[in-house]
Specification:
This protein is mainly β. 8% of the residues lie in helices and 35% in strands. It is built from 1 helix and 16 strands. A hairpin with a 4-residue loop joins strand 1 (55-58) and strand 2 (63-66). The chain starts with 9 loop residues before the first helix and ends in a 16-residue tail after the last strand.
Amino acid sequence: MLQYARITNPIDRITRLSGFLAAVAALTMPLVAGCSNDDPVVAADNPPFPPDGVFSVTGDNLVTIYWNQNQESDLAGYRVYRGNVDLSGPYFPLADISKSTTVYDDTDVQNGETWFYAVAAFDRAGHESELSREDVFDTPRPEGFGLVLVDLGQDPSHAGYDFDGQSNVPQAMSMSTTDIYFDVDSNGVKYIVAKGSGVDIQDYGLIDLIGVDWAPVNEGWAPSKQAEAISGHSYIVRIYDSQASQYHYAKFFVNGAPTAAVTLDWAYQTVAGNPELLVVGGTER
């Protein structure tokens, strides 16, 4: 404990005060030196944030993964993970991607197989983020382009199509495997017709085929089992599989203005009971 003495002589007071201040300065110098502005400040090198906005696009023997770009200044790239059990994992590294890219095509898949995906980010020091938090899963399915169906009244042998056959070739409307066919009524109105009691159809509206992601289970099916063929519209079809006691789902897009024939692009989900046609965002990816 410091003891303070009462000093009456001014010179002695100044002399002793100077000595006291010098002593205090000596005692406190290490503390001041330790706070010098010249000392380097080491910032914590934290891992990047997990990528967000992760979703997948379903393809034909293909799944494409998308995500938002991270903003860390020391970002080095991304690591795509994949699993085949369920959303809880396990996940295994699939590919390392440049920091300038936020998309990955997984071509090591087969139609009808369901895969689960996540993405992590890593920095130049090798620190890796946690896995992305979105629930991303996908089941690739076959597709076709430029399928031409002819008006039933002109050529019934080329008016129909069987989605399960995946041939991209028209067939006779009368065949037992035909799911849909093209017909022009007496008023010149052009229709795509669902054939048989186990097939239903609905017009999904003026939307590209890629925008048709998830087939509705119970809503929107046309009571008449037919839909007017309108250029630029997409349609959904469900086909009952009696062996599986479940539906298969398909979609198609009308290219160009239908005349005596109609040209369709299509996709078909081979897994019975799976309404996934192309899933984007949310928990349905």
